[in-house]
Every structure is written in structure tokens, then in C-alpha cells.
Amino acid sequence: MNAVANAMPAAHPNGAHYPDKRGTLLVPRWLFVASLARLLPLIGFIASWPMQQGWLGPAMADRWTRALLATADVGAFRDLTGTAYPVLPLGFDMVVALVPGLGGVPAPLVVNVLMLAIAASLWVRMLVAGGHRVAPALVTAGLLAGAPSVSLTVAAGGVAPLGVLAFTIAVSASLRLARRGEVNAMIALGVSLAFLALADAAGAYLVLAAVPFIALMLPPRMVATSASGSLLVVMFPLIFAAIALFYANWVFGGSPLAFAAGVDAAIHGSAARVGESSWLLGPGAAVGTSLAAGIGLVLANAPLLPAGLWLGDRSARRVLLLLTGLLLTALILSSATWFLGDPGRLLAYLPPLSALAAAV
């Protein structure tokens, strides 16, 4: 009983509760920049090594070609960007392609390395805020960034690194929302979900699966006051982003769903190549087997997760359980719709959860 009492926030004499301040240790302002300066070269070396051996993935080549075409011709810019999905990778690739002095370095590789380095620097900040020293936090973040599920997609030119950055912000905001019910955390969570939906087609499934879990993540006092209003605050950036996407496709493509036209559209994933996917023909073919296989893959690729569930406080355990459930739900949904030809596309989103499990 004493342990339970000590874990509860202190009560005010009038019956109110002080905010939960756990996980809010002061973090030096220089930590993010210092972490980025150390992690960026490491991630860049790991990601560029396959290209140094003469290998350039088809996804990398496709993104690079689109960026070069869009920045070279106005007509191509309109055609490529008007109905593009996901939108954000092309936008970032175009910005980097316009930077002089990069030579023959693929713009998507620069974008992927930078986005993952920023995400890893946020993991360092999360770990230090949880009570870890800077050096072990840097090592942990470097190991998480070098995990095969993430580093391979960075080197191959996949768009997951942008989604991983958005999911990292969502994980941090979710913990602050569950612990202290901050309005800023609600806004950060909503913006990160909108970013995630526009950054990666697989991220759109994470966002779709997130809606019921967000409702469960809200503090009880928010639910008691206005559950629908609180949920609307979180979902508003996503709703606005969806309207903007549909409108742009209607203007430039003649239909709000022009980005989904064609069997090879990114939103369809592996639907046109089901016969080539051992996952969709095997464990992903049924809900039960995809769930069982998904749990096994999560535990194998995020060994820190059980420790966080065991050692974390009540709010941290709830957030870890809900976000893990969100990931498994997205895996089931994307497999049932034949989108997910390779579960590795969603396993790339595990490092932020591992960082949170280590921090709590």
C-alpha cells in the first residue's frame, strides 16, 4: 500500500491533485544539438555504406528521380506534386535537391539520415529526462538508430524515417498527455499524427489505428469533462491535413482520391503483388496468425519493451501498452487490406517505443 501511495500524485488540501512531474528532469539546452552532432555522422556512415559498395535501391532511385524532375521543370513539378502521396518525402527531397554542393549524393539519403538523426537526438533527450546520463543515452540512441528495421530502410530510400520522427514526437506527447493532461501535449500529438499520415503510407495505417487508443490515453478528468472535445483537439490537425490533401488532388487530379488511382499507388502497398509476399501468403493471411506473429516480432525487435512495462510507473505502462496495441492493430489492418507485404515497414516504428521503455 505504501508503494501505491508513493506512486500517486500528492493531494492538495482542497482535494485537487498536483501535476505528475515524473520524467521532467531538467535537460540541458545544448543536449539536442550536441546529440545531433554526434549521431548524424554515425547514422550517415551506416546508411551510406551500401551505396559506397555500388548499391542503389530502387526506392532511392525513384525518389531521387522524382525530386530532380520536379525541381527542373515547372510542368513536372505540377504533375508530380499535385497528386503525390505521401507528400512530405517529395517535398523534403526537392528542398535538399536544390541545395548546392551535394554533388552525387542522393537527396533522399540526406533526408532520411537527417530525419533519423533528429529522431535519435530526441530519444537521447527522452532518456536523459528519465534520469539516464548523457553518455549511456547517446549509446542507446545510436544502437536503436542502427537497428536493422530502421537502418535498412534509410539506406534503401524508404520513407519510414520521416514517419519515425513523427512517431517519436507522438510517443513523447502521449506520455505527457497521460501523466499531466497538458494541452500542449494534445496539440503536439495531433500535429505529429498529421505529419505521420503525410510522411508514410504505412503511417496512415498507424493513424487509422490510433483513434480508439487516443481516447483511452486521455486522462480520466478530460474524459469526464468532455471526451469528444478533447478527442477533437487531438484530431483537428489530422482532419485539416486530410482536407488539404483531398482538395489538392481534386484541383490537380480531378478527383479527391486521385492519389489512390492506379494499382501501383503507394496507398495500395502490396495489394497488386500479393503472390510475391511471403507475409501475406503466410502469417498475414489471417487475423489470429498475424497478431501472434506480430507479438513475436515486436518482442524480438524491441527487447526493452518488457522491461519498461515491468519497471515503469502506471502512466508509462499504460502508454506503452496502448502504443504497442496501436502498432499491432495497424499491422493487422494493413495485412487484412493486403497493404503490408513486409512487416518490417511497421517494425521500423519500434525504436521510439524502445526509447520510452528505457526512459521510464
Q: How would the blueprint of this fold be written?
A:
Elements: H1 2-7, H2 31-52, H3 58-72, H4 74-82, H5 87-97, H6 107-129, H7 134-145, H8 148-156, H9 160-180, H10 183-199, H11 201-217, H12 220-253, H13 278-281, H14 287-301, H15 304-311, H16 314-336, H17 344-347, H18 350-359
Structure description:
Helix content is 72%, strand content 0%. It has 360 residues and is an all-alpha fold. α5 crosses α6, α7 (134-145) runs antiparallel to α18 and α9 runs antiparallel to α10 (183-199).
Main sheet characteristics: none
DSSP helix count?
18
- Share of helix, binned: over 70%
Radius of gyration from CA coordinates: 21 Å
Query: What overall form do the CA principal axes indicate?
Result: globular
Keywords:
single chain, mainly alpha, 360 residues, 72% helix
Summarize the structure.
This protein is mainly alpha-helical.
